[in-house]
Write a structure and sequence with these properties.
globular, about 10% helix
């Protein structure tokens, strides 16, 4: 084998692939962020409904009232509507919400942890799906007026 042919074969074997997979290329779970009362009011979410927090008395990451819900993802407010076929979760709200490829399902344990005159707190799971990834988030669901 000549030197020139050997160099071409070695160069072909050592060629850098056109696409390099990195950890960033893998889909990342959707991270819901804390919302504020100003966020809720800006999208008209006042009144009877529910909100979800990763812990009791913690920051609120998901709010639903009537046929509208909201969360914050990547610093932006996302407004969701009930997905077709969604069932009642609490009077005036639903169990499955959607905006584009984002779906949030609320799975309420119905095990009451706290109860007031107009509110009740239960354990709840949010199943958040987007772009082929699914996250299961455990927390508290507070419903009332």
């Amino acid at each position: 084998m000549s030197g020139r042919l050997a160099r071409r074969i070695i160069a072909a074997c050592l060629a850098v692939p056109a696409v390099v997979a990195t950890a960033d290329a893998a889909p990342r779970p959707v991270a819901l962020q804390a919302t504020t009362m100003a966020d809720w009011r800006a999208v008209g979410l006042n009144g009877t409904g529910c909100y979800w927090s990763p812990r009791q008395d913690g920051p609120i990451h998901f709010v639903a009232a009537g046929a509208k819900a909201m969360t914050r993802i990547d610093g932006r407010v996302v407004i969701l509507k009930p997905r077709r076929g969604a069932r009642d979760l609490f009077p005036f709200t639903y169990d499955v919400w959607q905006f584009g490829d984002l779906t949030i399902r609320v799975v309420d344990s119905a095990r009451i942890r706290a109860m007031g005159y107009e509110t009740m707190t239960t354990d709840a799971l949010l199943i958040v799906s987007r772009a082929g990834t699914t996250s299961r988030l455990r927390g508290s669901l507070i419903c009332g007026s």
